[in-house]
Design a protein that fits this description.
Blueprint lengths: L1 E5 L5 E5 L6 H7 L19 E4 L12 H6 L11 E3 L12 E4 L6
The structure holds FE2/S2 (inorganic) cluster.
Pfam family, one: Fer2
Cofactor: [2Fe-2S] cluster
InterPro entries: 2Fe-2S_ferredoxin-like_sf (IPR036010), 2Fe-2S_ferredoxin-type (IPR001041), Adrenodoxin-like (IPR001055), Beta-grasp_dom_sf (IPR012675)
Length: 106
Amino acid sequence: PKITYVAADRAEQTLDLPLGTTVMRGALTNDVDGIVGQCGGYAQCGTCHVFVDPDSLDKPGEMEPDEDDMLDFTACPREPNSRLSCQLEVTEALDGLIVHLPERQT
Ligand code: FES
């Protein structure tokens, strides 16, 4: 499934990620700047914050309460389209997802 990351400076990178990884891990293993992922993917650090593009808002599933809670503590304030990319598991349903990266994660 293809995931597009748009940096704060609008530079775009599209990756074809394997099923079962996460949007956070896909970024880290492919050197996408702008995602930190300090806690390793446990919804405990908020440094994998992304904004889901309005055109692909229907792709990710509902968030769990721990993600919702952690989103209140991100470096850049949350928006209605905020998600923690470590909680976005790559599935076929995610193909075509576009995420925007915040200006900072810490
Ligand atoms: Fe820590 Fe996502 S990697 S909250």
